Amino acid sequence: MTASEALVFQHSSFAGRIGVAREDITPPVGICHRNWGASETDTARTVHRPLTLTALTVAADQDSPPLVLVSADLGWWQTPELFSVLQQRVLSALNLDASRFLFALTHTHAGPVLADASADLPGADLRTDYFDRLCDAAISSVRQAEAAAVSAVLDWHTGCCRLAACRDLPDPTSDGERIVCGFRPGAPADDTLLVGRVTDQTGTIRAVLVNYACHPTTLAWENTALSPDFVGTMRDVVEEQVGGPVLFIQGASAELAPRYQYTGSTETADRHGRHLGHAVLATLFDMEPPASRLVFDRIVESGAPLAVWSHEPRTVSSVLRAVQTTVDLPLKNWPAADELDQRRQACDDRAVRERLRRQRDIRRVLGDGCTHASPVWIWRLGDALLAASFWECYSTLQRQLRHRFPERCVVFGGLVNGSLGYLPPAALYETDAYPVWQTPVAAGGLERMTDCMMRTAADLLAGDLPDGDDSFPDRSAERSS
Which residue ranges make up each domain of the chain? Predict the structure, then answer.
């Protein structure tokens, strides 16, 4: 960086046509709601706050196909094939390329169970109707967003929020190597908060994007209410101030959660949401005007020599590119799906039965191979990058991506376009930790994912990759050999 470049501050920005729209996707009371093995109830009894689905469309101009980002107040796909059905319906209805569509889950643990009607869970009829409604809401919101699109600028800014804490706690009741999921005092936690501000040509804020890594696990087994957890209150706090809708992107939060959690208290969820919401507002108020940059102007002698900085207009990038590729992740040697199901049927412990059911469903999807060709999405939004995966990755991934591209805002989205489990760092596999024994991926998976994302993003920025699907060969195996 030259001396003159160091005397400029500007946001990572994109200029083009941007639209946003929202649908209410609150399920009916009585839908299957059992997201915790320790829960003693199977269905939702009340609604805390509405669950919503928000769509954002981003296009270089009026004649270009958009990139589509959808964020939904949902937890995870209990049967991973179910997302493929939704994806195909949306892509077909909107004539979209798969690389240009991202469906992100906010990861609430107080939402409906996303399983097909054949799953041995209560309320099959409600689940079938709700899934159809969810597909319709996704298609409708994208169409509304495209119709409402205007010339706008998307500026990104980095803030911080202390809501998230490390939740990998060495078991205080044991002398072994067991790691339990709970607050670990003194352990570092990624507090990075990324805020995207969409403003139209009049300077009006049309939407706000929030990228933060923190498990929405405030509400746990004692809770019987449908709720977006802290994400819903955060949206309400921000939207009351700015007017436009807020779209939340869950970051790499595998080991991150609120210090105090696992309650039935919706007020605690609201308190956490206010915490994050005010951090978002503080970051917004710290931003420079849209389509401008802050530059060193002159020195004014006034007792002390005063450095005066001024705003000046800037040309904002309208480059928009999307790439979907795959990376081969090593798989554990799990039992076959039928064997896992036999163990489940023979088990009387509700929590263990739930664990075995999830493992069975994952095994059915992955098959009996040694590796899984895991999809990766990289978008370029002007000066910014968005990387996405359906895995729940440890925060080291997003931190390494941001370190690799320090001159750009790097947004990371987890639980995007599906969900299967965790990607822990290789060193954690030496311990008895839930993310390690829950995941079907063997040690080294997170490192391969990180390497693939870095290389794909670098080549995309260099112009070496065409837009679209399968445009980047996976070389992770040869890199590791």
Answer: 12-287+375-418
